[in-house]
Amino acid sequence: MKLSKNKSLKKLNTFMVDAYSNQYIEVDSVKDLKEIFDKKVFNEDFLILGGGSNILFVNDFKGIVIHPNLLGKGIVEENKKTVTIKIGAGENWEKFVEWSVHQNYLGLQNLANIPGDCGATPVQNIGAYGVEVKNFITSVEYFNTKTGEIKEITNKECKFRYRNSIFKHDLKNNALITAITFKLEKWEKDKAIPEKYLQYKGITDYLEKNYSKPYTIKKVYDSICNIRDEKLPKVGKYGSCGSTFTNPLISEVEYKRLLEKYPELPNYTTENEGVVKIPTAYILDKLGWKNKRVGKCGTWIKHPLIVTNYENATGEEIYNLIQIIQKDFFDNTGIRLNTEINIIF
Question: What are the two backbone dihedrals, phi and then psi, of residue 44, each rounded to the nearest 5 degrees?
């Protein structure tokens, strides 16, 4: 366990905002968590900070930042068709995805090249290219900050929804995720992956241009890594959290209304009847938000959904830009644009 005071968080958030916390605690084990629980740390104002890839500090954090560095990965069950893996919350997500691809385990390849730690993935129910992490999680283990106990809940109990889970609501500040259990399908190395992983035209276009069939796990993984490298800011060079905003879920009636103004606006089916998902980036692009600078920050050169810290902007400057974009989106669509990131004031 590591303790510090007046800790700079600049290297601990991918927006690279130079905010400070009054105290900082890095925990390496459940034993450490129980120790700080006994010391009443969780009775104070605290923040759980993992890889920092989904957070914006508008100001300094006056309380205690707790960084879970809980490592470890192992197979807990397997048969001829599937494998079940338990992984520590502090493990790097991209390294886990890459490992799963090299093992020829099907499922996580579409979630490639997403920065952050594994512990954040169920909180946000991360998703990309038609895949959500909820489809592969069987259970989540967490430390209850109110009771000091270790709990484990099932996929159903996690209440996963689009970019949402129980950890953002009912268990917010009551649960520090310690480990996640995933169930993946074993796949033949040279066998084409199912069509459900090829829903997005950008993937199929890239595959057709750069690879021959069959489109294997590795080919899809490499394609998505390359697409994201081409489209997104490089972590560490520019500050960002990837997609800043969610894609709105709207009724089919609302969608037909929007088509009058945006005739070619795409839509994607959802699990809910009569509800579709629309791409925020399409509308922001039409509104001129791609590669737009406002002071020291702006939107990314190739993607209007990504708010970017270009020149050491403050958290307040980035937040002000986010609000400007949200207002412009609402004024032109009548739809409130929600952020995908966690904003800390």
Answer: -90, 175
In whole angstroms, give the CA distance from residue 296 to residue 314: 8
CATH code at position 325 = 3.90.78.10
CB atoms within 10 A of CB 313: 24
Residue 301: alpha-carbon gap to chain centroid: 21
Confidence at residue 254, expressed as pLDDT on a 0 to 100 scale: 97
CA distance 242 to 120: 14
Q: Does residue 197 sit within a domain?
A: no
3-state helix, strand, coil in the chain (%, to 5): 30, 30, 40
Catalytic amino acids? 163, 243, 340
Count of the separate structural domains present in the chain: 3
Task: Give the CATH number for residue 6.
Answer: 3.30.43.10
Tens digit of each residue's pLDDT (9 = 90 or more) over 116-128: 999 999 999 999 9
In a domain, 163, yes or no: yes
Instruction: Give 114's DSSP letter.
Output: -
CA 88 centroid distance within chain:
17
Give the residues across from 86 on adjacent strands. Answer: 74, 181
What φ, ψ does residue 343 adopt, rounded to 5°?
Answer: -100, 120
- Kindly report, residue by residue over 269-328, the tens digit of the pLDDT: 888 899 999 999 999 999 999 999 999 999 999 999 999 999 999 999 999 999 999 999
**Amino acid in the structure at residue 170:** D
The answer on pLDDT for 199 being more than 90 is no
Domain of 46? 2-68
Place of tokens 């010391």: 39
**Phi, psi torsion values for 178, nearest 5 degrees:** -105, -30
Nearest of 69, 68, 105, 112 to residue 85 by alpha carbon: 105
Is there a single domain that holds both residue 60 and residue 136? Answer: no
